[in-house]
Amino acid sequence: MKRSRVNVIRVFRSPLDHRRGRLEAGNLVIPCALGRSGTRHAKREGDGASPVGRFAILQAFYRPDHGPRPRTGLRLRPIRPGDGWSDDAKDRRYNRLVPLPCSTSHEKMWRDDHLYDVVLDIAWNRGPIVKGRGSAIFLHLARPGFLPTEGCVAVDRRMIRRLLERIGPKTRIEIVG
């Protein structure tokens, strides 16, 4: 059965716990984790908040050694051990994929904890990039118990492939405040 692509994925914050929510993609409704500070309109680097707004999903990354290539309408790139993401506001490559080793502050994309086995690049602070406004805002896999993120949206491993099948290049993600 062929699934149709959704135009908008909506993320709603829970009224009971601002660090959790639900993600809706058409008729697929799944729980998600949000930033440790909940959601915020005025996102800043290190504040632990998930940004409120509607954003493009630029591409997806996946760990080729941790499962099959996901099916999606998004541009898809395998994560390599030498991939990082700059989170240093002083770096000219701030909020971009960077090669490792990297002398400035960064996140490793090739992680041992499986959170980045599948990653969707949410277009937060990407055009133009404003230093200090926040970096590495992704939709990725959740920690056990849906512990809060550093500002991303995170879903259960068992649901990510179902979600990816519904996403195409025109799909937007809306994080509702």
Describe the structure.
The chain has one helix at residues 157-165; strands at residues 8-13, 20-25, 28-33, 39-40, 50-51, 53-62, 76-78, 83-86, 97-99, 106-108, 118-122, 138-141, 153-155, 172-176. With 177 residues, the protein is mostly beta strands. The strands form three sheets. Strands 1-2-3-13-12-11-6-14 form an eight-stranded mixed barrel. A three-stranded antiparallel beta sheet has the order 9-8-10, with no helix packed on it. A two-stranded parallel ribbon has the order 4-5. A hairpin with a 6-residue loop joins β1 and β2. It is globular. The N and C termini lie far apart (35 Å).
Give the tags.
single chain, 177 residues, mainly beta, 8-stranded mixed barrel, 3-stranded antiparallel sheet, 1 helix, 14 strands
Could you give the topology of this structure?
Elements: E1 8-13, E2 20-25, E3 28-33, E4 39-40, E5 50-51, E6 53-62, E7 76-78, E8 83-86, E9 97-99, E10 106-108, E11 118-122, E12 138-141, E13 153-155, H1 157-165, E14 172-176
Parallel strand pairs: 1-14, 4-5, 6-7, 12-13
Antiparallel strand pairs: 1-2, 2-3, 3-13, 6-11, 6-14, 8-9, 8-10, 11-12
